[in-house]
Amino acid sequence: MSSEHVARILGDSRWVGAQIAKAQVALRDGAEKEATARALYESSSLSLKRSREIVETLRDTEFKSFLEERTRIGSAENPITKMFPAAVTERQFLDQLDHLREARPSVNYRDERFTGHTLVDFTIMESGIALPVNVKNAGTRFENATSLVGLDPDDCIPIPAYKAYDALEREPNLLYAICIDYKLISKIERNLLTYFSAEEASVWKILSKYAGPLIRDAEDRFVYSMVNRHWEAFSRHVAIPVFRIISARKAVRILQKQPKRTPGIGLRSWGTGASAEVNVHVSVADETKQWAEIHSRIVKHGITDIISAVNRKKTEVVFDPEV
């Protein structure tokens, strides 16, 4: 039955495993081999020759035997530790955007998460003006923050430096909306499978074990559909979020003024106590604002007020060496 479950839940995914499952269901429902092979070829990354080879024995062979097993390398290969917390946090922020739209009807938003836009998750819009937002979950405390960047671990969140610089070129008004919840991963791991039906659980186990071309597409579709479908259950086990806001422009300004906040640039012992990604570390209390304040300012003055705040300037005397 597993191919039927995969075909039903992930049938629109481009993942090769989902398309092979669909092909098996079609064959068992009486479809012709050549038509099935061509459909598999057209909907997946497989060649026509390979599609024909698979279809030749697929009807009576376990479809999973045609898949490659996942090679796990740390948490980056574990969708539970990365994708579900991200999807839950984004769903929580979506609720905040709905509240904002109710409070100021001239404001709307656009969901950018599935458009291929790597910097922006949501765009808040009003009168033709756009305010892009990237939503993040800070789920791991930086325990060495005091010694490495001079911040208390509970007052420290990372912003990837290269992404902030990229945003200045492509989305200069970008805001980061960051939810700090160090218990979110463990709460999801503890309760996740209790949310799923037997069919959904079987698909989750297949996704956890197998990979192959375009597996991320299948993971995305599964994770986001499960979070939306079972949001009531998820929301019972996660804390009410407090989103902290900082612009990409401000993160870059902190890096420029305080390079020691960015190990790998201002710290010689890089690699001994921080992750390999170059992050600028910001103070939650002193350098971010609560979403509640941003919400209030937009309701009163519109999104132009926030864009003006992001682009505020001041005059400074700086070194400009000739040599």
Characterise this structure.
- The chain has 323 residues and is α+β, with helices and mostly antiparallel strands.
- 50% of the residues lie in helices and 13% in strands.
- It contains 15 helices and eight strands.
- The N and C termini lie far apart (72 Å).
Brief summary of the model shown:
The chain is an alpha+beta fold and 323 residues long. It has 15 helices and eight strands. The model has no long low-confidence stretch (mean pLDDT 91).
Count of DSSP strands: 8
Shape: elongated
Strand order of the largest sheet: 1-2-3-5-6-8
Strand content: 5-15%
> Mean of residue pLDDT?
91
Radius of gyration: 23 Å
* pLDDT < 50 stretches: none
The largest sheet, given as strand count, sense and whether it forms a barrel, is: 6 strands, mixed
Question: Helix count, per DSSP?
Answer: 15
List the helices and strands and how they pair.
Layout: H1 2-10, H2 16-28, H3 33-43, H4 48-58, H5 79-103, E1 108-111, E2 122-126, E3 129-138, H6 145-149, E4 156-160, H7 161-170, E5 175-180, H8 184-195, H9 198-209, H10 215-229, H11 231-236, E6 243-247, H12 248-257, E7 279-283, H13 284-287, E8 289-290, H14 291-301, H15 303-310
Parallel strand pairs: 3-5
Antiparallel strand pairs: 1-2, 2-3, 4-7, 5-6, 6-8
